[in-house]
Amino acid sequence: MSLLTGRTLGSRRRTGRSNGTRVGDALPVLSGAAWAVLLLGALPIPGPPGAGSGSHGGAHGLGAVDPLGSATGPATDAAASVAVTPAWIAGWLLMVVAMMWPLLVPLANRIAGGSFPSWRIGLPIVAIAVSTMLWLAFGVVAGAFAQLAAIPAGSLWWQLAAFTVAGLARWSARRARLLTRCAVTPPIAPGGGRGIRTAARAGAVEWRRCAILCGPLMLAMVPGHSVVVLAAASLSVWWEARHPRAWRDPVPLALIVVAGIGAVGSTLLGG
Sign (positive/negative) of CA torsion 221, 225, 226, 228? Predict the structure, then answer.
């Protein structure tokens, strides 16, 4: 009986490795596609004759900004409604896919590896969808606050403040403890309604951890950002996810500094 159980478990593990990573394998591909769209949106493609500097400002619809972060030209109207425009929400969601979905690959693989064969795609999708929707809600709330506070589009001060918080937070003991728990997934049922509920809970737990660890960097993106800032911030969180050494690792902090320099440079060069 024990031999049969061992064979069955071994067969499940082999099947989980071959079929249970389909969602996990798809996440980097979809993230790469989102990056391609973001990079294309950042290209200086000329608009129609007479179009202002905000005609092609990337995912967040930014125009030119001065060194103090105050918008100039058409971007002023966009900044006033940054939290409510469908274009801004679509841009934020695209950024979440590009930046955060690679971090969800281990979670998707762990969920798939412990699920029934017919649930090895559905349950990881539930967890990813919950985490993504929570990031979307996070962005909308932060954007609404920026709108109510009249934060100008591309605000340099907002970005530098967020990067400062992200840098200082690296010396937090709580943050160090949380990094060690990122590889721990709450118990998840292998299928059915209970599987859906527990997978959703796992997605929410993963988001909460990531929001504490990456939240300041994500807040920096709210009023707008350059591709350099997004790339440096993304590399910082990706590196730390692969090398969770908290304050002992200087690479994420160096990338945060690069993001800050990118924000300053982008602002001085006109957005």
Answer: negative
- The Cα–Cα gap between 35 and 99 comes to 8
Least confident window among 11-25, 199-213, 230-244 = 11-25
**Averaged pLDDT for residues 139-150:** 88
The tokens describing 223, both together, are 């009023």
DSSP state of 82: T
Measured CA to CA, the distance from residue 79 to residue 61 in angstroms comes to 8
Q: Which residues contact 259 (CB under 8 A, 6 or more apart)?
A: 163, 217, 220, 228, 229, 232, 233, 236
Helix then strand then coil, % of the chain, to nearest 5: 70, 0, 25
Dihedral (CA of 129, 133, 138, 140) sign: positive
Decide if 62 contacts 153 (C-beta within 8 A): yes
Is residue 246 left, alpha or beta, with left meaning phi > 0 and alpha meaning psi from -120 to 50? left
Q: What tens digit of pLDDT does each residue of 196-235 get?
A: 999 999 999 999 988 988 899 999 999 888 889 999 999 9
Confidence of residue 63 (pLDDT cuts 50, 70, 90): very low
The Cα 163–Cα 259 span in angstroms is: 8
Residue 34 near residue 96, CB atoms below 8 Å: no
**Cα gap 10→7, rounded to integer Å:** 5
Compute the distance between CA of residue 181 and CA of residue 21 in angstroms, rounded to an integer: 22
In contact, 15 and 26? CB cutoff 8 Å: no
d(CA 109, CA 239): 19
- More reliable by pLDDT, 30 or 186: 30
- DSSP-based three-state secondary structure for 52: coil
* Token reading at 82: 């940054």
